[in-house]
Design a protein that fits this description.
Layout lengths: L3 H14 L2 H7 L3 H7 L16 H9 L5 H13 L4 H29 L4 H15 L17 H11 L3 H17 L5 H13 L3 H4 L13 H27 L16
């Protein structure tokens, strides 16, 4: 999940800035919030080695305006006697905010730096890991993701999927991302070979964090981190407004944008 760690860091920054009343509603369902911060990306890894509707849904959602998703989420929240659905939705808002804030710039950098989208996001993860005192080659980036069938039942209606499909997507995500932790040359060579054999090399090679920082992209990565930090107040504002209007159709015009 390129920039998965970046989404986690951003989600924690936003959580820290949220109104205490909202935070209190999230905390009993923090696992759902932490899954929500990864948005539709959790579907990318469902049966990753072959094309399928679940994986396609995850990729396709990024091209669509987000408003229909968050309108539907309000209906689900109204039907939930707990705050589980709300916690997931708030996490999802952080994902949308960060994607829609950074992806346009990343799209420009793909051309100016001749780097793939996933490679740029891996460099972003790498820099944040280093700044956080973690080894980017060995760090486990999924410690905050806890698949649970009960949580899958909460998430499934958001995507019109079965709980079994969401549960499998989350377990597949954990398996693949742990498999991609490849600090040794032997494992890295093996992982890349499997990607080539599976016809996934061009699409997924950027998921591997490089041994060394790409100095050519360093200034731009620093700028992306600044943009991330600047997006925190926007996410907080969108969440506050969304929670204030759970009982009506009001939705911030920002949600008319897609994730790109």
């Amino acid at each position: 999940m390129p920039a998965g760690y970046t989404h986690y860091v951003f989600g924690e920054q936003v959580l820290d800035q949220l109104d205490e009343n909202i935070k209190k509603r999230i905390m009993p369902y923090i696992d759902l919030y932490h899954i929500g911060i990864h948005g539709p990306d959790i579907l990318f890894y469902y049966d990753v080695y072959k094309k399928n509707p679940v994986k396609s849904l995850g990729f396709g959602m990024h091209q669509l305006p987000a408003n229909s998703f968050f309108k539907h989420a309000k209906e689900l929240i109204k039907q939930d006697a707990t705050d589980a659905t709300l916690a997931y939705t708030i996490g999802f808002i952080t994902h949308f905010t960060l994607d829609s804030s950074l992806h346009p710039e990343i799209g420009v950098l793909e051309n100016t730096l001749s780097m793939t989208h996933s490679l740029l996001e891996s460099e972003l993860d790498r820099e944040l890991l280093v700044r956080g005192g973690k080894d980017p080659l060995t760090a486990n980036l999924t410690t905050h993701i806890h698949p649970d069938y009960t949580n899958a039942q909460v998430i499934a209606p958001f995507f019109d999927l079965k709980a079994e499909e969401v549960d499998k997507a989350l377990h597949d995500l954990l398996f693949i991302l742990k498999w991609l932790v490849a600090p040794t040359k032997l494992k890295r060579s093996f992982v890349l070979s499997v990607m080539k054999l599976g016809g996934m090399y061009e699409e997924y090679k950027g998921l591997l964090i490089n041994y060394e920082k790409d100095e050519h992209a360093a200034n731009d990565i620093n700028h992306l981190i600044e943009m991330k930090d600047e997006a925190v107040p926007l996410a907080v504002s969108l969440i506050n407004e969304y929670v204030d209007h759970l009982d009506d159709d009001c939705l911030n015009e920002r949600f008319n944008r897609n994730y790109e």
